[in-house]
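Look at a sample.

——
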Amino acid sequence: MTRPELRSRRRPTAVVAALTASVLLLAACGGGDSAASDEAEGNPNDPRNSPLAQLFGSGTSSADQRAQQLEIEQQVAQCMRDEGFEYEPVDYQAQMGDMNAEWEMQLSDPEGFGEKYGYGVVRGYEMQGDMGATTFEDPNQDYLNSLTPEENEAYYETLYGGSFFGTSEDGEMEEYVPPPLEEQGCQGRAMLAVYGENSPMTNTDMQTRMNELFEDMESDPDVARAIDDWASCMREQDASYDWDRPDDVMNEFYNRLSELQFGPMTESEDGDGVVVAGTAMDGGMGGMPEVDEADLEELREDELRTWRHDWDCQQEVDLAGVRRDAEQRLVDELLAEFPELQGS
């Protein structure tokens, strides 16, 4: 429910890493209990029915996934102690509180969630205030505050590994390429120990290949045709709708909310994103600027109206089903290249 990074209206040329991360997040954060997973089966609108999410174990019970995450944290704690640092395991799911119920509703009943909250943009803003600015509380923060800057740097290097960004000859930062987990500090080694080396959660060769296949899926003729049909349907609903892809719609609402909080957005000098200018970061929720209630209500009404048009058009062109079929072809290729995934 946090405000995502702002984007320009142009679709980014590299979205594969984000797509991969979202699938991994679905598997790692919990897909609900087994009954909810059974209910999801056969429903293309439920992300737990995604072939890739199923491959990554999204049907595992929430309790089992939480236990697995806590096991990783226990191993991290032991590793850090062995290296001479203190570390208290973090129970991430416990910190989510009421957000777990919101997440479950988005998974199990996306239409019901959308009818109530649209894309969740205004809802996310309100939850930050209702929950007293739901900031993550690191149980290790007091210990970190006691360290010198040099010790702090060594702590994070031990926990996550060193910097993995290289610099090219012209001084520009090179593209991030994740190193093997055994080189990603105590966190990486703990994940490797718990998930094993033949899991898509840990195997960088699998993840790299999956990224390549995602690029192919984005240009899949059936998917491209369905998206074009969706865009035409949206323009029939309202001539002012000029979005090319469904993702653009939600991004625009987040951008509009950000403008209400922080002021107008302007293109960065290199034209590769946006920067925010205007409102100072003070007051309101946890130091964040508040939005005028009338402006927020207008945004909410527009969000709900647009979401309904978007949902109806996606159902009309069966976008979820088309994507599911394309993703199944991706999974089939992954399994052919990595047969060890069959038992993951």
The two ends are 30 Å apart (CA to CA).
